[in-house]
Amino acid sequence: MHSPVTICPVTKPLSVALFKGLGNHEIPVIRAAAAKRTFEAPQIIIRAEEPAVRLFVIEVGSVDYYIVTNDGREILLRRLMPGNAFGFATFLSEPIGYLGTARAVRKTQTLVWEHRVARQLAETYPRLVENALHASLHYIAMYAKRHMRLVSNTAQERVAYALTNLGSRSGHMLPGGVEVDIKNEDLASLADVNLFTVSRILGAWERQKVVSKSRGKVLIRCPEKMLAA
Amino acid sequence: MHSPVTICPVTKPLSVALFKGLGNHEIPVIRAAAAKRTFEAPQIIIRAEEPAVRLFVIEVGSVDYYIVTNDGREILLRRLMPGNAFGFATFLSEPIGYLGTARAVRKTQTLVWEHRVARQLAETYPRLVENALHASLHYIAMYAKRHMRLVSNTAQERVAYALTNLGSRSGHMLPGGVEVDIKNEDLASLADVNLFTVSRILGAWERQKVVSKSRGKVLIRCPEKMLAA
DNA sequence: CGGAATCTTGAGCGGCTTCAAAACCTGTGG
DNA sequence: CCACAGGTTTTGAAGCCGCTCAAGATTCCG
User: Fold this and answer.
1) CB neighbours of A54 closer than 8 A, spacing ≥ 6?
2) pLDDT given at position A13
3) pTM to 2 decimals?
C-alpha cells in the first residue's frame, strides 16, 4: 500500500462545483453548517431507495456510485472524486429516494448536510439549487452519451473511453504515463462490458505497448493508440 | 387521420409538474410571462448543443426528445406529452447547450419562456428551480433504469417495457385494449432494439393475440402476456 | 393508379457473453 | 522464509442473441 508520487500539489484548493458562484463570505458559512464524516472502504454511505435526507461533498478519497440490476450485478455509474457531491435530492422539499448506492472506495472524508439544514441553505443561497440542477443536467448528458456508446460503439471503444476518462479525473502522473487505480471488474462495469472482455482488450493493448497492467492498476502509455484496430 | 375516441375528458386541467407547489395566485403570473408557440410536425423545436435560451411546456400535442449518434442514428430519449417541460437549462445563469433535440410529433402548442424571463421567475419563485431539479433527478433515474434494461434484459423485455410505458402515458382507451400511436421505428429506438427485431417481436405477439398491429399503431390487448416465453 | 413510406421475412454472421479451469499475485501467519 | 488462502486475472472453447443486408409485401395518399 505505498502511495505513488503525485504531481499535483498536495494542498491544491478543493474546487467544489456545488459552491460555484458563491462568494468568500458565503462558502465558509455553508461549510460550517456541515458535519464531517469519514468512511472506511468498502463502507456503504447511502443506499438506493432510501429517502434522501443527507447531502454529501467529498473532501478526500473516492466513492463509487452504482445501481444494482435485478440479477444482482452492479452497474457503476460514476467514480466520484474530491469536490464532487452526491445526494442532491436532499434539496427537495418532499424527499424522494436516492437514485443509487454510494460506497467508499478507500478512506474517504466528507461534508454532510442534513435535510433540514440543506433546505435552509437552499432558501438562503438559491445558487446552491441552481448548481445542483446544473450538475444533474450534466449527469443526464453523460448518461445519454454513455447510452449512445453502448448502442453504437464496440467494447474496445467503450473501454478506451472509460479508461481515458478515469485517467483524466483520477490518474496519477508517472514518468511512463498516467496510472489509474482500477480493477478490471470495475472498469468492466464502467464500460458496460464483461470482465473477460476487459481482460482480453487490456491484454491486446499491453502486447502493443499501449498500456501496462498490474493488479488493480493500469498504466496508460499512449491513449491515442487504443483505438487503432 | 381520423381521431380515435378518447376516454379522457377533453378539458381535463393540464397538470404541469414544473408548477407543483405553487399557488393559484402564482401560476397565472408565471403563465402570463410566457409566449405561446405552435409547431407543426416534423418541425425541430430545439437542437442539441444550441445554447439553452428557451424553456418550453407542452400544452397540446407531443414532442420527441432525442440525441443523434455519430453514425447518424437517432436515440429517442423520451416522447414528451402535454404537461411535460423541456429546456430546464434555461434556468441556469450561465447558459449551457441543450442536451438533445426536440421535434414535434404532431401539431403541438407550447408555452415559451425566454432566458431572461426564466431567470427572473426563478428568482421570484425558487420552487420552479426546485421542480426542475426534481424532474432532472427523475430523468437520471429513468435513464439509469433504461441502461440497466439494455445491459441485462432481452430485446423482448425492453420492447414490452417501452410499449406498456407508452401505453400508460399516451395510450387511447379502446374497447379492445389500449392503443398507442407509434411507428415500429420509433418503438425500436425507445427500446434500444433494431427495427427488424421489433417487427418480429410484435409479429409473434400478434399471433398470440397479445397485440394487434396496424401501420403506425399498436393495440395492446394483454400486457401481462408479453413476457410469457 | 403509382410512388413513397412502412412493415415483413429469411438467411447469415459476428461480437460478446458465458462457462470452466487454470495461473497469477499479495498479504498473512506459522 | 515459506506456504497457503483469498481475491484477481487470464485463456480457451462454445454458443447465442440480435444485427445486418437484401428483397419483397403491404399500406397509405396524392
Assistant:
1) A46, A87, A90, A112, A113, A114, A115
2) 77
3) 0.93
